[in-house]
Predict the structure.
Amino acid sequence: MDYGRQMTATGVEFTSGGVRLEGDIRLPPRPAGDGAVPAVIAICGYTGIRAAHPARFARALVPRGWAVLGFDYRGSGTSDGERGRIIPAEQVEDVHAAVRFLADAPGIDSTRIGLLGWGLGGGVAIAAAAEEPLVAAVVACNPIGDGGRALRFMHRGDLAALEGAIAADRGRRARGEPSLAVPAFSIANPQPGTRAYFEEARRDDDTFVQSVTLESAEALLAFRPEETVERVAPRPLLLVHGAENDSTPSSSRARCTHGPASRRSWSSWPTAATPSGCATTTRRSCASST
């Protein structure tokens, strides 16, 4: 059954750093009693928009009793802000704003708000939860644990051209000039199969960011959410990595599972486990929680 056809998305607005953000919230049937339901904030990946994966995750989660909030980062989708500026620290701020908005929303159980992110959004989810005690649990799918390692992986180990462009852009900004915007996939350079998937999705929606600034590339290289993962504990953290994922190195999952977090586990999923079916696909392997 396609639950997506039966759900009503209600448009919402909130602010982050003085910037207006737009989102959609999808609600399950109200339970008996106080009517409060648990909620998930679905966090976009690199250049993602709420109409893509957040809506797909909602199709799986809302019929199971979860409210789902998807939103566009500043500068993305239909939110305000500078287009092409993808700064992970600012995206973490946007998630914090979404958590506070959702915690105050009627009918939401503010003690049961989780984060669900993928790719860059998985790293943003970890970094945001590390700083926000209102987050009760985190799921990170194919997360970026270290931006430099992830970009090196996507560029087959050779970052010389990108680093040279960033250095030149740093000088440009020092002279008071704006950061140069380049094609989004010249920074994140996925393998052909994954790239074709992304490009097909982007072709149907002109709110996707097509160009990204080199200042953003510099910020992505420096983003290391794996260094903050210990502060998620003792809250649950589930790390999921596609068994044949070719965009994010599996070492990100391994490094994020190191350490003493008390309720941390990881899973590896078959390639066929798409976001729309992730709640029902059988796991290939799962390490015990430590």
